[in-house]
Design a protein that fits this description.
This protein is an all-alpha fold. The chain is 58% helix and 0% strand. The chain has helices spanning 21-35, 49-79, 84-96, 99-108. Helix 1 packs antiparallel against helix 2 and helix 2 (49-79) runs antiparallel to helix 3. Residues 105-118 have low confidence and may be disordered.
């Protein structure tokens, strides 16, 4: 059965996450740019408690946004697997935001453990 043939009450309300695909695109672009800021923390989070707290807050914000983007793209894909835009959005969220987890992991490996002297 096609999505267009479903009763609206039997479908996901994706507008609770993003009111439109346009808003998803805007937040996706924002997240893609923000991920690059992980480099700004490289070698610095051990310098002070404030820098560590700044990094942790930044990491939380990016992680939550990336998760919302990921879930929305995935749900929209499963909503209608025949929709080319949904397939493309799902592929983009996988490729473009893939660097975020690696960046976070590299920031954590050895760097935070050095802050125990603060």
């Amino acid at each position: 059965m096609k999505r267009s043939e479903q009763k609206i009450n039997d479908t996901w309300n994706m507008e609770d996450m993003f009111p439109s695909d346009k808003v998803w695109e805007e937040d996706f672009e924002k997240a893609t740019k923000e991920v690059a800021k992980y480099k700004e923390f490289s070698g610095k989070i051990k310098d002070s408690k404030d820098k560590l707290i700044e990094f942790l807050k930044f990491n939380d914000e990016i992680s939550l946004l990336a998760e919302r983007l990921y879930v929305y793209a995935n749900q929209k894909y499963h909503e209608d697997m025949g929709n080319g835009q949904s397939r493309a959005r799902r592929a983009r969220r996988s490729q473009d935001l893939r660097t975020a987890p690696r960046s976070r992991a590299s920031m954590r490996s050895g760097k935070i453990s050095q802050t125990n002297k603060l």
